[in-house]
């Protein structure tokens, strides 16, 4: 008989939430029956993962009008900040689900704090174990990038709201972490941070689905450097080293816009930032901008590229910490050369070189030399490829990670 796990999470497919979506896909093969409780969001990024398990959704913003939804968002934010509205609604739904058919444990996955409070109350109410999965933490950001929507009041009031929200969220988060049976997180840096709240921390990376992301050799008529994602801020993801490298190679007449293209699959706000930066470095002629692509289109975009781009920044001091995103793992899965700019000089750089996935550039010359090497390879073959360490690569399979989660579940239930 399968054991049942209640997954309480802020995001779940079809909206952006691949970690839990892929986990449910493979958990069922390992003797677990997952049921997800999540928020209703108007997003179908991962629609192909939406049927992997039973899902109960809570809709906090039912208005169809965009202006009304923003008003609802503001009032829900205030009520949640003052009274814990969202956790209270989730807790009520979790009780209904458990009374319908009992669960053996609770897994809560979040990128900030919500819905950890609801998960703890549910676990305590029914006397079952709680595992808290931290995909991201506020401390990893360089500024206020953890706030997805700006308030746009007066600057002083904005700062007070964000600071108060951050401080309260951290207090609530850390309380739940201390009472959790186990913590799971996504990078060695996150492990070290979270150990100060609970010594029982397990590292389970983000990863790639081997049934979706695999290498294909596709010849292209142009050399494509490709980036998919968002630019939260230039301090988090700094493309300047790339632009400097392209400017250097263009100045030396080693590349030309007719067959060397940098493709950006980004949102409108990121496009504006990138265009300004490209103009500043005099490389706008080499840039092509596209909108977001759906998740099921990403493998073809990656395989049709010559170099895949990761943007980050040096992790020391005020730089971003522990950034090992899903994008990184999906890029290495298709075995295309990876260029990370600027190197974090930390765990991401270490992983890139351990897997033999490409270059984590600390200098302009390193980035330019890598681009030139791969450009030469493309001109000879019509495509590029890498030969990573497959044993190291396979550790980041979503299927393997589901096995790690399953082993942890078995330990806490036993």
Quick structural gist:
This protein is an alpha/beta fold and 414 residues long. It contains 14 helices and 13 strands. The two termini are 15 Å apart.
Description:
This protein has 414 residues and is of the alpha/beta class. The chain folds into two domains: 3-207 and 398-413, 3-Layer(aba) Sandwich (Rossmann fold), CATH 3.40.50; 223-394, 3-Layer(aba) Sandwich (Rossmann fold). It is built from 14 helices and 13 strands. The protein has helices at residues 18-27, 66-83, 85-100, 116-126, 155-179, 188-194, 240-251, 268-280, 298-303, 326-333, 347-355, 364-381, 390-394, 398-413; strands at 3-9, 32-39, 54-58, 105-110, 130-134, 182-185, 201-203, 223-228, 260-265, 287-290, 307-311, 338-341, 358-360. A seven-stranded parallel β-sheet has the order 3-2-1-4-5-6-7, sandwiched between helices. The protein has a six-stranded parallel β-sheet with strand order 10-9-8-11-12-13, with helices on both faces. It is globular, with a radius of gyration of 22 Å. The model has no long low-confidence stretch (mean pLDDT 92).
């Amino acid at each position: 008989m399968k054991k049942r796990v209640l997954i309480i999470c802020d995001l779940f497919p079809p909206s952006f939430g691949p970690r839990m979506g892929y986990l449910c896909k493979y958990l069922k093969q390992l003797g677990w029956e997952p049921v997800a409780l999540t928020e209703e969001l108007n997003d179908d990024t991962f629609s192909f993962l939406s049927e992997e398990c039973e899902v109960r959704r809570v809709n906090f913003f039912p208005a169809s009008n965009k202006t009304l939804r923003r008003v609802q968002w503001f009032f829900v934010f205030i009520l949640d900040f003052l009274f814990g509205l969202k956790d209270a609604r989730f807790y009520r739904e979790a009780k209904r689900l458990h009374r319908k058919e009992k669960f053996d444990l609770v897994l809560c996955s979040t990128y900030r704090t919500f819905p950890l409070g609801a998960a703890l109350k549910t676990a305590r109410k029914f006397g079952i174990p709680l595992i808290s999965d931290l995909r991201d933490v506020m401390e990893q950001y360089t500024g206020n990038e953890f706030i997805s929507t700006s308030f746009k009041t007066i600057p002083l009031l904005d700062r007070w709201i964000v600071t108060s929200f951050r401080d309260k969220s951290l207090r609530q988060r850390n309380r739940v972490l201390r009472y959790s049976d186990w913590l799971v997180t996504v990078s060695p840096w996150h492990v070290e941070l979270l150990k100060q709240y609970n010594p029982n921390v397990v590292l389970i990376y983000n990863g790639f689905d081997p049934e979706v992301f695999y290498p294909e050799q596709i010849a292209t008529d142009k050399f494509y450097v490709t980036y998919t994602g968002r630019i939260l801020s230039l301090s988090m993801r700094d493309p300047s080293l790339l632009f400097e490298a392209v400017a250097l190679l263009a100045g030396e007449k080693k590349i030309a816009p007719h067959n060397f293209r940098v493709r950006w699959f980004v949102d409108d706000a990121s496009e504006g930032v990138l265009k300004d930066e490209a103009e500043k470095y005099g490389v706008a002629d080499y840039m092509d901008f596209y909108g977001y692509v759906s998740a099921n289109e990403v493998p073809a975009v990656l395989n049709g590229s010559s170099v895949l781009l990761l943007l980050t920044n040096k992790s020391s001091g005020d730089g971003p910490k522990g950034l090992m995103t899903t994008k990184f793992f999906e890029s290495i899965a298709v075995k295309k050369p990876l260029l990370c700019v600027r190197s974090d000089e930390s765990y991401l750089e270490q992983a890139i070189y351990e897997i033999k996935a490409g270059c984590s550039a600390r200098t302009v010359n390193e980035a330019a030399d890598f681009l030139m090497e791969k450009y030469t390879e493309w001109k000879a073959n019509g495509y590029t490829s890498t030969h990573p360490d497959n044993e190291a690569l396979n550790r980041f399979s979503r299927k393997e990670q589901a096995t790690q989660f399953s082993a942890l579940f078995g330990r806490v239930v036993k």
